[in-house]
Design a protein that fits this description.
Elements (H helix, E strand, L loop, with lengths): L1 E9 L10 E10 L2 E10 L8 H7 L3 H4 L5 H12 L3 E4 L2 H14 L11 E4 H8 L7 H7 L12 H16 L14 H4 L18 H17 L27 E6 L6 E6 L27 E4 L12
Parallel strand pairs: 1-4, 4-5
Antiparallel strand pairs: 1-2, 2-3, 6-7, 6-8
Length: about 300
């Protein structure tokens, strides 16, 4: 896939009013890699540039006076872009100027020489609606270094646009080519065996346990002796999770060391009714006093035959 990022600088804003192209920059990309092949021209517009335009690109009439005319570079430009996808930021602006330059030479419109024209400004507006989507704004948002862009320049801007485009399309994060890069198969990461992962539980210190006991006493007093923190009978059977496929459950555990809530439960699969809770497993000892520090754990065991160690 051959793509060319193109930018122009002009004497003003309107080709219909006689404004002309004064600079063209093209950067070639092959299969989403910069080829190192670029095309760049400064052009004599045969007219003066608007003062506001000079403030943007810095190309004075004196600098452009000895540069070639568009007519002398037209064939080289059209040969370079022939059959490629052309990517331009705010394409209607640049293409309008190119069409007018070609019309002056009696040539067909620019789109007739290329495979297609893609407007990266339209892409950015689709991706970031309601936000600023100038080239500078996109460089900041996508973390593309544009620190050298004190003035607009066609070749510089075309290169920045190439980096922005890659990040917009999310194919890769950088255009840097690593000569030692491996094939996709070699670079593929091995599957992670989650059964080897262990959940670390940090238990409360003596001071925290003492403070916790005070909180429990206050809650028990305020509730009229209805504290359920130390009641273990209602909790669900961990062993059920290790049983037959029909007995496997989605297990949720939540423990809050403030003493407000300590709840362990099972949910039946496919609407089935959970098994009656019983206590027959040492795993429950992990939740005995003193309690763990405040944490929330939600574990889903899908199609497993054992409960993971903490």
């Amino acid at each position: 896939m051959r793509q060319i990022f193109l930018d122009t600088e002009t004497t003003g804003l309107s080709p219909d009013s006689g404004d002309r192209i004064i600079e063209i920059g093209c950067v070639e990309m092959l299969n989403r890699r910069l080829s190192g092949r670029n095309l760049h021209f400064y052009l004599n517009p045969e007219r003066r540039s608007h003062e506001d335009a000079i403030k943007i690109h810095g190309l004075t009439d004196e600098f452009l006076a000895d540069k070639p005319l568009f007519a002398s570079v037209a064939d080289e430009l059209l040969e370079f872009v022939d059959g490629a996808e052309i990517i331009i930021h705010n394409a209607s602006f640049d293409v309008g100027f190119l069409n007018e330059e070609l019309r002056r030479l009696g040539r067909p419109k620019f789109s007739g020489f290329v495979r297609q024209i893609t407007d990266s400004l339209f892409m950015a507006r689709e991706m970031f609606p309601g936000k600023a989507n100038s080239l500078d704004a996109l460089c900041r948002r996508l973390e593309v270094d544009n620190s050298n862009r004190s003035l607009h320049g066609a070749l510089l801007d075309a290169g920045l646009l190439a980096e922005v485009y890659i990040r917009l399309t999310r194919g890769q994060n950088s255009l840097v080519i690593d000569a030692s890069e491996t094939s996709a198969a070699q670079a593929a990461a091995d599957a992670v065996d989650f059964s080897l992962l262990a959940l670390k539980v940090v238990f409360a210190s003596e001071a925290e346990s003492a403070a916790h006991a005070v909180v429990l006493a206050e809650i028990d007093k305020a509730s009229g002796g209805k504290l359920v923190w130390r009641q273990t009978a209602p909790v669900a059977e961990f062993g059920a999770v290790r049983g037959t496929p029909q007995a496997r459950r989605t297990l949720g555990i939540r423990a809050v060391s403030s003493g407000v809530e300590h709840n362990i439960h099972t949910v039946g699969v496919g609407g089935s009714k959970p098994s009656p809770p019983t206590i027959d497993t040492p795993h429950l000892q992990r939740f005995a006093e003193p309690p763990p520090r405040s944490f929330i754990l939600w574990m889903k065991l899908h199609r497993t035959g054992s409960f993971p160690e903490f």
